[in-house]
Write a structure and sequence with these properties.
With 436 residues, the chain is an alpha+beta fold. The chain folds into three domains: 147 residues, PAS domain (Beta-Lactamase), CATH 3.30.450.20; 103 residues, 2-Layer Sandwich (Beta-Lactamase), CATH 3.30.450.20; 123 residues, no CATH class. Helix content is 58%, strand content 19%. It is built from 15 helices and ten strands. A five-stranded antiparallel beta sheet has the order 2-1-5-4-3, sandwiched between helices. A five-stranded antiparallel beta sheet has the order 7-6-10-9-8, sandwiched between helices. Helix 13 packs across helix 14. The longest helix is centred in the C-terminal third of the chain and has 67 residues. It is rod-shaped, with a radius of gyration of 62 Å. The chain starts with a helix and ends with a helix.
Amino acid sequence: MSRHKKVKDLQAYLDDTDGRQDRLQIVENALQESEAKYHRVIENIEDGYYEVDLAGNFTFFNDAMARIAGYPRRELMGMNNRQIMDEFNARRVYEVFNKVFVTGMAAKAFDWELIRKDGEKCTLEVSVSLRKSRHGKPIGFSGIARDISRRKMMEHALRESEEKYRTIIENIEDGYYEVDLAGNFTFFNDSLCRMTSYSRDELIGRNYREIMDEYNAKRVYNVFNTVFITQLSTKAVDWELLRRDSSTRYIEVSVSLRKNLTGVPVGFMGIARDITERKMNERTLIAREEELKTKTTNLEEVNTALKVLLRRREEDKRELEETVMTNLDDLVHPYLERIRKSANNKKLLEIVDVMETNLQTITSPFFHKLSSQIQNLTSAEIEIANLVKQGKSTKEISDLLNVSIKTIETHRLHIRKKLGLSKKRASLRTHLLSIR
């Protein structure tokens, strides 16, 4: 080979070497820039980023990871993951890392509890990926760690709250229900199962229309529709429920609109109270009130009839008494008086006295019924008053009684005075006819 040829080949080699060095420099610069870029990203994310070797010792992490663990970077570097968790969580982490190592598949959203340097515990949601060398050999693990302690606390509080209210709901005597917008049961307590006599498996997903007749189903639909439109709860709505055994129960129900977390209506919920016994008592009470009302009406009618009968009886009795007294005054006493005046022997007078005494004894109960005005008259005045009432004139009475006209006129004056007519122009006969 000539010298010229050797020089030319050497120059070409040197040129090629310089070119490779330039390319390597470019690649190195790009790599450094890329590493700086991703380093900035990792350092600025809120979540923790970590890298550990196959033994679980920290080889790299960002500031967020150090803050989450509560350790300074220099203390956390090289620390084994078992040092920041209890035995239970260390065993779980090992199982996950081992599975990732064996399968080569990343694990996502894996929770574990970490113990910070100050002893406080926090819950992490961690992803785990297998790290490999340039030759594809496993050299460790990497991933993202997010502090979800607050979320876990909220979830725990929510579970406790749900459990608390679920316990309350399950232990109340009244039924609790939830239905979707179509009226299908999505949740309920045991009390509602007892009311309907359906088991949980039979009632879940069943539509409310299946446990009532058409009339009550329309009423319930109207209530649900009103609550949906107005978004106002309603209380104490009564409807009739058909149990699985075909018997009927009456329930008093409240209805409220159910919404999801975004405020969109998703169904209805409420309390159902069995008021069958109360309804039966109300019906019995109404029936008894109607019965009592009927009896009262009948009694009032009977009482009215009795009053009419008693009044008629009193009227008849008074009429009889007056008739008897009038007849005695008109038909008996005058003639007894005549016999007394014309009698010539003592025995006959005694008989007349006995008759008058017996008549007084017989009629004495009637006297209190007579007008006080009539009772003030003498027997002669009563006799003349009765004749006047019959329309007899003074002369006719004089002839009939065989006494003078003047005597009759005197008696008439005494009668008018005793009857309060002495200073009045009223007719004596008319007044006597008006006295009962």
